[in-house]
Design goal:
Length: about 300
């Protein structure tokens, strides 16, 4: 049985959006105007005049000052629209996520790391491409409702709940072909993936992490050498993603910043296809349906 996320503290100003987000783990909204898309694409070219290689995200840049500058620059463009969409929220970090042309730009199936106490809050990504997404340039793919299978702790040092069924899950993933300036807003615990960029141009995206204003950042670490299924949880300050120097080069190590809250049991089961099909009502390998709900037309328009 799928767990109920509606008891969490929501931040969407529109209750219909909030309900859809809790139910499916994502919503699609118009996000940037054409002028804002153009401005942000110009910022991408300014920060990376020689382009990037493979899969690249500002989050993994080793230069903390660079991360801070990119974060601030993107937020300045997006802040007003974010304020229209949400209430009782805070913005934690904005970044570029880029796929250069080539097979090494694939991003494997994953759930994002745990960043808040998910008993009470949702970690949320606002993921917005600066170019139209196509079958060739590495569109994001999601597994609807997969944030509701069961609670997890997630991080680079932790095993994934779906490790045993990656090949079986891939045909169920739903590609989201957004236009430049549209955004998919998704729960960080939803299972998602993106194939390589097989086009001839970069596929730049901006991503902004938001959550409830009362949420404290918390990350998880599993020491595989101690032989025990215990996760150490670290409380972090709101500038954690800017300041965490482990990103990009030693993310499997014990965190170097934050306050340890101690050890907690890691006793989550592995996901099985039997559970996936039962919870999602899937028969004969049918795919979850992705619909653009009618409430989109009621949102604040983009000029």
């Amino acid at each position: 049985m799928l767990i109920d996320h509606s008891t969490k503290k929501g931040i969407f100003a529109d209750p219909d959006l909030q309900a859809q987000f809790h139910e499916n783990g994502y919503v699609i909204v118009p996000f940037l105007s054409s002028n804002e898309v153009e401005k942000l694409y110009g910022l991408y070219e300014h920060f990376y005049p020689n382009g990037v290689e493979g899969f690249f995200t500002t989050t993994f840049a080793n230069n903390v000052e660079h991360r801070e500058t990119v974060n601030r620059s993107i937020k300045e463009v997006c802040a007003d629209r974010i304020n229209e969409l949400f209430e009782e929220y805070k913005i934690l970090f904005s970044s570029f996520i880029v796929k250069a042309p080539g097979e090494n730009s694939e991003l494997i199936m994953h759930q994002d790391m745990t960043l808040v106490d998910e008993d009470f809050y949702s970690g949320i990504n606002i993921w917005c491409p600066l170019v139209d997404l196509t079958e060739k340039n590495g569109a994001i793919e999601v597994l609807p409702k997969s944030h509701r299978f069961f609670k997890t702790y997630r991080g680079s040092s932790l095993p994934d709940i779906y490790d045993d069924i990656v090949a079986e899950l891939k045909p169920l993933m739903q590609a989201v072909y957004l236009k430049a300036g549209e955004a998919v807003i998704f729960d960080q615990s939803i299972i998602h993936y993106s194939p390589p960029n097989r086009s001839e141009k970069d596929r730049p995206v901006i991503n902004t992490f938001v959550t409830h204003q009362d949420a404290r950042l918390k990350i998880c670490y599993l020491d595989k050498n101690n032989g025990e299924n215990q996760v150490e949880i670290f409380e972090q300050e709101d500038d954690f993603i800017e300041q965490f120097e482990n990103f990009g080069h030693n993310i499997f190590n014990r965190p170097t910043i934050g306050k340890s809250l101690g050890l907690f049991p890691y006793d989550f089961p592995k996901l099985t296809m039997e559970k996936v099909k039962a919870d999602l009502g899937i028969e004969d390998n049918s795919k979850p349906q992705f619909e653009r709900k009618s409430w989109l037309s009621r949102l604040i328009g983009i000029k």
